[in-house]
């Protein structure tokens, strides 16, 4: 049996994978470990008065591919509008 350096043994003596891949929120592609141009953005959820709710945020992951094509801002606006964080910002214009 070959040992992997990317696992550890939990308290129940099970081997657990350390790396959990992320998916790009805009394209649904898996973000690989070597994609150093990818970003993860956390946007705080707010109450009716505009104050941040502690421990509550919406997370978006954008791959380096989306960022390199210059579509990150448009994708972030689209995703935030779908989640109800923005209103009347994004419209499909192509």
UniProtKB/TrEMBL annotation:
Provide the protein's localization: Cytoplasm
For this record, an example GO cellular component is: cytosolic ribosome
Classification via Pfam families = Ribosomal_S21e
Q: Identify the keywords attached in UniProt to this record, alphabetized.
A: Cytoplasm, Ribonucleoprotein, Ribosomal protein, rRNA processing
Principal place of residence: cytoplasm
InterPro entries, per this entry? Ribosomal_eS21, Ribosomal_eS21_CS, Ribosomal_eS21_sf
User: What GO biological process, any one, is recorded here?
Assistant: endonucleolytic cleavage to generate mature 3'-end of SSU-rRNA from (SSU-rRNA, 5.8S rRNA, LSU-rRNA)
Presence of keyword Amino-acid biosynthesis = no
Any one Gene Ontology MF annotation carried by this entry is: structural constituent of ribosome
Q: What does this protein do?
A: Required for the processing of the 20S rRNA-precursor to mature 18S rRNA in a late step of the maturation of 40S ribosomal subunits. Has a physiological role leading to 18S rRNA stability.
The record's note on quaternary structure and interaction partners says: Component of the small ribosomal subunit.
Q: Which family would the database say this protein is a member of?
A: Belongs to the eukaryotic ribosomal protein eS21 family.
Under which name does UniProt file this protein? 40S ribosomal protein S21
In its UniProt entry, the species of origin is given as Sungouiella intermedia
What's the source species' lineage? Eukaryota, Fungi, Dikarya, Ascomycota, Saccharomycotina
């Amino acid at each position: 049996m070959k040992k992997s350096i990317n696992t550890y043994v939990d308290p129940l003596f099970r081997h657990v994978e350390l790396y959990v891949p992320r998916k790009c929120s805009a394209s649904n592609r898996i973000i690989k470990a070597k994609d150093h141009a990818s970003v993860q953005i956390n946007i705080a959820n707010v109450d009716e008065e505009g104050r941040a709710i502690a421990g509550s945020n919406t997370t978006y992951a954008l791959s380096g591919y989306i960022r390199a094509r210059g579509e990150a801002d448009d994708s972030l606006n689209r995703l935030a509008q779908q989640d109800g964080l923005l209103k009347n910002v994004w419209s499909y214009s192509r």
